[in-house]
Amino acid sequence: MTDANMLLEMKSINKSFSGVPVLKQVNFSVREGEVHALIGENGAGKSTLIKILSGAYTRDSGDILLRGKEVHVSHPLDAQRLGISVIYQEFSLVPQLNGAENIFLGRWPEKPKGWVDWGKLVDEAAHILRQMNVSIDMTVPVRTLSVAHRQMIEIARALSFHAKIIVMDEPTSSLTDKEIDTLFQLIRELKRQGVTIIYISHRLDESFGIADRVTVMKDGMITGVSDVSGVIKSTLIRLMVGRDIQDLYPRRTSKVGELILEVKHLTRKGVVQDVSFSIRAGEILGFAGLVGAGRTETMRAIFGADRLDSGEIYVRGKMVRINSPADAIKARIALAPEDRRSQGLVTCLTVAENITLANMSSVSRGYGVISRKLDREKAEQYIHDLDIRTLGPQQRVRNLSGGNQQKVVLAKLLNTKADLFIFDEPTRGIDVGSKAEIYQLMGRLAEAGAGVIMVSCELPEILGMSDRIFVMHGGRIVAEVLPNEATEEKILTYAVGGASE
Length: 501
Hints:
globular; Rossmann fold; alpha/beta; 17 helices
């Protein structure tokens, strides 16, 4: 394979932040019309490399070539002019505007005298959607659309710039299986039209299902490049984490102890209907179900983030009233929310400030005065224990990778000294190495006598981690299944509202 066969080449790319190298002599290339998976642990350098390609960051050294010719990308507008578009995990749509207005945001066609040509705007948006073989109502605000349809709007906007290279960063992290199938059909259609896709995902099965080639990054370097057809999953994992992961789901010897939590007939109109269950010390409960089944809403209600219409909550046999997260923390209940960035962290604060935020008394010397020394020492302890990749306790959380942000959320939970931990989609957007670490943490908590509740869309981890599995549909618990009786097919049957045979 010669350079002439490549659409994009990034050669000897180097980048450092505050003197710390994050990309080291990276060579990355993609062919025209291929789907190329870029994988690696959180903090491996994938996002930094893509931000250099998109013009969001400036490289310290190295070259970028398109069709063999060197190009200069120092601003996102440069990337757009070159036909390079990036669709980030967090959408950049204006929720109040409709699909057509978002697709051509800042470039609405005009009539004479400067009036917007609304008819042409909708027609041009519809033309792009027809090319994508997608049907979406262009007249409604995008906030009313599903996550999958909003993603299609993002892709349509990329195509409106005549993009020949589209980078998709964790595109399936919030999608259902059916929506993932729709996305994959679109990716194959774009590939047929000659569009090149750089596909970033922590879900290795997806990479095998959609990509032609795969590049692996670790510690700011490329550790492997291969045709997908010529590589096995265990090899990719070893290249990503630098070791074999034999037991992804840890074996546990924890004994089931006293009743920690019991909820009876929890109801929140429209989302949670008559939910009852209990958990004992040493147990890990898995909650499965499709998006919108009511799992997250149930956990938010238990934690006091949302108000219940009716129902009772008992903590260690005593009925409690939980009207706010502060009440839940006092009852020694901790929640790692589904949306870690907007609900689990204050991203403008430091690592240390986020870790101690839910239990300020742990770093106070009395009279409400915070000890910066205790704050730093506490953070350093959790940074070491959870292997948080950071420049130090004073680094802003917004500058961490997704996996390390999740570890900061977990550190904050551990610092509350809770004995019931609720994890809502704890491994979403997390690499396989960090997943293994989070599973081990859950196992250690259970063995230490805590109760653990895990909400997840990933059935393998529900099956691999749970002592009991509850399946929700339509806001209700429709089944309780023991792991030795559970299969993915059985759980999915309950999740869609059917009865397993």
